[in-house]
Amino acid sequence: MSLKTRLTPLRWSVLRMAPGFRKLLTTGQVGDGREAAVVDYVLAHARAGDVDDVLATIDKFAYEKSMLINVGDEKGKLLDAAVRRATPALALELGTYCGYGALRIARAAPTAKVYSIELSDANATNARRIWAHAGVDDRVTCVVGTIDDGGRTLNALAKEHGFASENLDFVFLDHDKRVYLTDLQSILDQGWLHPGSIVVADNVKIPGAPKYRAYMREQQGKRWNTTEHRTHLEYQTLVPDLVLESEYLG
């Protein structure tokens, strides 16, 4: 398939998605059924137990059917590389959506326990079905909640899932961009990160997380060492984006 062929319907998919951005912030879904549709598509077309094929099938759906807001194939390679550098035993994702990001983390760190926080019960159900089909549901767990829900989710991670002082090796931020910084601060306050822990943040340019980016720039060489990766918004090559990869210095 030519680049032109891929981009033309994709631009239309982005336009169709625009009215759903407000819903995303409250429901975690665009509102046109694409999140449920990608699960059915994966179960119908991807080989069971094959993580690579499940990821490729989700990408195919996003290019050819409806755009998805997961990290995608281009930025996913940056995520993969950061996970491999972290060699995590314990990883945390904020923003499960359809389970794509956690699946990439699980593939890049095949012995890690991966926990993903998601505000939407429907998204959690969808992600669990995809993880089960990929064969990683024994080590990838979705916790429904948010970091800023009065301590309920943080307490669950500590009491039910073993999060403890300096044992969190990797964090992927891919949820509400407005709370990247406050949620990271809450994680820091728990004392779970250790020197060498890596935090990756998607969509720092589009939709944008300016307070998070400013914080990382101000803390460069002090508390964090950050690399800004220039890339593109998921599933197209027209809109620039930034992925920040930050190593915690302690």
From TrEMBL:
CDD domains, A to Z: AdoMet_MTases
GO biological process: methylation
GO MF entry, a single one: O-methyltransferase activity
Annotated Pfam families: Methyltransf_3
Keyword Ubl conjugation: no
Keyword flag Chloroplast: no
Alphabetized InterPro entries for the sequence: SAM-dependent_MTases_sf, SAM_O-MeTrfase
Keywords attached to this entry: Methyltransferase, S-adenosyl-L-methionine, Transferase
PANTHER family for this protein: CATECHOL O-METHYLTRANSFERASE 1-RELATED
Protein name: O-methyltransferase
